[in-house]
Amino acid sequence: MARGVGQYVVIRGLMIIPTVLILYTIVFIFLRILPGDPILAVVGTKNIAPEQLEHLRAMAGLDKPLYVQYFDYLIRMFHGDFGVTLAFPQGKPVWEYLKLRFPATLELTIFAFTISVLLGLITGVIGAIKKGSKIDTSMRIYSIVAYTLFIPWFGMMLQYLFGVHFHILPTSGRISPGVELHRMTGLYVLDSILTTNKEALISTLKHLVLPSFTLGVVLSGAYTRLVRNNMVDVLSQDFIRAYHARGVKDWKVTWYALKNAFIPVITLMGLQFAILLGGAVLTETTFNWPGMGTFIVDRIDYRDYNAIQGAVVFFAFFVGVISLIVDIVYALLDPRVKY
Amino acid sequence: MELITKVSHFIFEKKPGRGMLLFGLVIVLAVILMAIFAPLIAPYDPTASSSDSFAPPSSQHLMGTNRLGQDVFSRIVWGSRVVLYVVFIATMLSMSIGIPLGLISGYYGGKIDRGLSVIMDSIYAFPALILAIVIAVVLGPSPINTAVAISFVYVPTYFRMVRGQTLSLKGQLFVEAARAVGAKHREIMSKYILPNLAPTILVVFTLSVADAILTEAGLSFLGLSVTPPTPDWGYDLRVGQPFLLDGYWWLVFFPGIAIMLLAMAFALIGEALSERISLGTR
Fold first, then answer.
1. Is the pLDDT of residue B10 over 90?
2. Do B237 and A152 touch (CB under 8 A)?
3. Residue B244 has what pLDDT?
4. Which of A161, B16, B127, B178 has CA atoms 20 to 30 A from the CA of A178?
5. C-alpha torsion sign, points A325, A330, A335, A338
6. What is the model's pTM?
C-alpha cells in the first residue's frame, strides 16, 4: 500500500512536465514567433544605436536561432533560471523578482482559498438542509452573484466601505510602512509568528483581510453549489435515514453527510485554483499587493516580454504542483482510487 | 412564425427556472438595444470633456461625471458596444475552433485525440486570465485583439464538452445505423452527432459568455483592451480607482454594476437552460 502511494505520487508528479512544456511552448510561440520584436517593444520609438540593440539582443539571448532559444530557455528554466528583465532595470534575473513576489501571492491565495472553501461549505450545507425553502433559493442566488462578482469592483467597494468610510482597515500593500519585519520565508504571517513580532502580525493580518475576503467570496460560489448538491444527494441515502431512525442527533448526521459530500469538492479545488490565480492578478492590482500578478502587470507597461514569459512559466509550474497535491489528497481520501 | 411561437413557448413555459430565464433575457436584450441605440439613449457625448468634473449623481448627470467631466452614464451606454463586440467575436472564434476539433477528437480517437486532449487540458488547467494577458500584451490594445486573446482561452471549454459528448454518442445505435447504410464520417459528424450536441452547446455558450464578459472586463481593467478615450466598462473602473479614496465612488460603482449585470444575465440564462436540459454544468 505504502509503496503504491509512493509510485502514484512519482508518476503523477512526472505528469506535470508535459503540462508545463505545453504552456511554455504556447507562451513562447506568442511572445517570440508572432511578429513583433521584444527589444524594439521595450525601447519603443526612441532612437537607439544599432550596437546597443545588438547588445540588448545578445543579453536576452534573442540573437540565436529560434529553436536554440526555445531549448536554451527550457534547459535553463529547469535550473531555476528564468531569464533576465529587458527594462527598468535591464539585465536583472527574473528569478530575483519571482523569489520576492511569489510568497506574497502564495500568502494571499492560501487565505483566499480557505475563506472560499469555508464560505462555500457553510452556504452549501445550509442550502442542503433547508432544501426547497426560501433559504435554499437565497443560497443559490448567493452562488450565482458571487460567481459573477467583478473582483476589482467588489474590492473597491470594500476599500470604500472599510478604508474610507469606517476607516478601520488598510486598502493597499502587505504591511504598514513603519512596521519592521525580519524576512525569512516571505510569508509575512509566518515570519511574524516565527520572530514573535506581534505588531507585524497584526499589521499583516489587517492588510490581508480585504484582499483575501474579496478573492475568497468570488470563488466561494462554485463550492456553495457543489456542496449543496452533493449534500442533498447524500442526505437522501439509506444510511442517513438509518442514523435518523436510531436517534442520532441532527448535527451529527449532518457532519457524517458532509464528510461524504466532501470528496468531490476536492476535485473542484484543483480546478478552482487556476481561477484563483487568475483572480489573484486582479485582486493584487486592486489592492496594490506586491505579488506575481502585479509583477506581470508592471512588466506589461514596459512590454518586458522576457519577464512576462518567466513569470507565466513559473505560474505553470505552480498550477502543476497544486493539481498534483489535489490529486494526491484525493487519492488518499477516496478509497475507490486505485494506484 | 412557427419558430417564434416555439421559442416563446419555451421561454414562457411554466417550468423551473422560468424567472431566471426571463430576468436574464430581459437584461441581455436591454443591453443589446442600449448598444444599438447608444446615440439616441446617451444624453451626452461619452468622450467630450467639460469643466463640470467629479459632479455627483444628479438629475443632470444620472451617474455623475468623472475627472474629465465626462458623463458616466453616457460612457456606460456607449461602453456596452465594446463589451458586446469583443465577447461576440471571441465566442464565435472559440466555438468555430473548439467544436470541430472536439468532434474530430472524440469521433476518431487514437493519437490525434490523445495529442489534442493533452494540449487542451493543459490550457484548460491554466488560469484563463493570465494566458489572455500574455496574448493581449503581444497583440496590443484593440478590441479585435482582445477578442482573439479571449477566444484562445475558451477553445478548451468547447473542445472538452464536444469531445466527451461525441465519445458517448458515437457508440449509439443511430450512429451505427448511419454507418451501416454507408454514411461518410463527415456526414455522421455533421448530420448525426452535431445536432444532438446543440442543447449542450447552447448551455456552455451562455456560461462561457458570462465568463468571457468578466475576462474582457479584467483585461480592460489592466489596460489591455481599449485605448482612451474609448468608453469601456473595465477601463473606466481602472481610471476611476485613484479617486475612490477621495470619496468619488460613482466613477467605479456604476461601470462595475454594468459588467456584473450583463455577466449575471448570461449566467442565469445558462442556469435555467441547463436545468431544463438537466445536465451537469462545467
1. no
2. yes
3. 87
4. A161
5. negative
6. 0.90
Q: Give contacts of B214 with chain A, Cβ < 8 Å.
A: 148, 150
Q: What is the mean pLDDT of residues A90-111?
A: 91
Q: In chain A, where does DSSP find H-type helix? A: 2-14, 16-28, 38-43, 50-59, 66-78, 94-129, 134-148, 151-158, 188-194, 198-235, 238-245, 250-287, 292-302, 305-333
pLDDT at B282 over 50: no
- Is residue B273 within 8 angstroms of chain A, CB to CB? no
Helix (H, G, I), strand (E, B) or coil at B37: coil
- pLDDT of A157 reads 95
Which amino acid is residue A238, in one-letter code? Answer: D
Give the ipTM.
0.91
Closest alpha carbon within chain B to A225: B281
Average pLDDT score over residue span B229-245: 90
Q: Name the minimum distance, in Å, from the CA of A150 to any CA of chain B.
A: 6
Respond yes or no on whether the N-terminal peptide bond of residue A89 is cis (omega within 30° of 0). yes
Q: Cell digits for A12?
A: 503523477
CA R_g for chain A: 24
B245, A171: Cβ pair inside 8 Å? yes
| Cα A160 from Cα A167, distance rounded (Å) | 9
CB neighbour burial string for B246-270, b if at least 16 within 10 angstroms, e if fewer = eebbbbbbbbbebbbebbbbbbbbb
Q: Hey, is the C-beta of B54 within 8 angstroms of any chain A C-beta?
A: no
> A336: exposed, middle or buried (C-beta count within 10 Å: 0-12, 13-18, 19+)?
exposed
Q: What is the 3-state secondary structure (H, E, C) of B119-184?
A: HHHHHHHCCHHHHHHHHHHHHCCCHHHHHHHHHHHHHHHHHHHHHHHHHHHCCCHHHHHHHHCCCC
Average pLDDT over residues B51-74: 85
Name the more confident of B34 and A305.
B34
pLDDT tens digits for A201-249?
Answer: 999 999 999 999 999 999 999 999 999 999 998 888 888 888 888 888 8
- Residues, chain B: 282
Length reported for chain A: 339
Distance CA B78, CA B232 (A): 8
Say if B278 is an interface residue toward chain A (CB within 8 Å): no
- CA–CA separation, A155 and A283 (whole Å): 7
List of chain A residues whose C-beta atoms are within 8 Å of the C-beta of residue B126: 23, 274, 315-316, 319
Mean pLDDT over each residue of chain B, to the nearest integer: 89
Q: Is the pLDDT of residue A10 over 90?
A: no
Find where cell 445505435 sits. Answer: B173
C-alpha closest to that of A276 among A328, A226, A214: A214
